[in-house]
């Protein structure tokens, strides 16, 4: 099952601009686990890809600078 390994991750390395790589720490809430799993299985994408897209969307749309 492609869901188990990525959920054990609590960090992702992401490049949000052209120069810096950020380490993002996160937790996947239990209530999201099943929805995330079914989405990834039905779209045949890795969990880490979906998490990176969502984190990037949230950070780039926020008004606060990324620290």
Characterization of this structure:
The termini are far apart. Residues 1-8 have low confidence and may be disordered. This protein has a two-stranded antiparallel ribbon. By secondary structure, the protein is of the alpha+beta class. The protein has one domain. The chain is built from three helices and two strands; from the N terminus they run H-E-E-H-H. It has helices at residues 4-8, 30-43, 47-61, and strands spanning 11-15, 21-25. Helices cover 51% and strands 15% of the residues. The chain is globular and about 35 Å long. This is Ribbon-helix-helix protein, copG family.
Core attributes:
67 residues; alpha+beta; two-stranded antiparallel sheet; 3 helices; 2 strands; 51% helix; globular; disordered N terminus
């Amino acid at each position: 099952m492609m869901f188990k390994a990525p959920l054990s991750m609590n960090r992702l390395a992401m490049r949000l601009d052209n120069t810096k790589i950020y380490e993002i720490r996160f937790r996947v809430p239990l209530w999201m686990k099943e929805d995330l799993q079914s989405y990834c299985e039905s779209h045949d994408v890795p969990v880490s890809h979906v998490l990176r897209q969502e984190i990037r969307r949230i950070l780039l749309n926020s008004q606060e600078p990324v620290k």
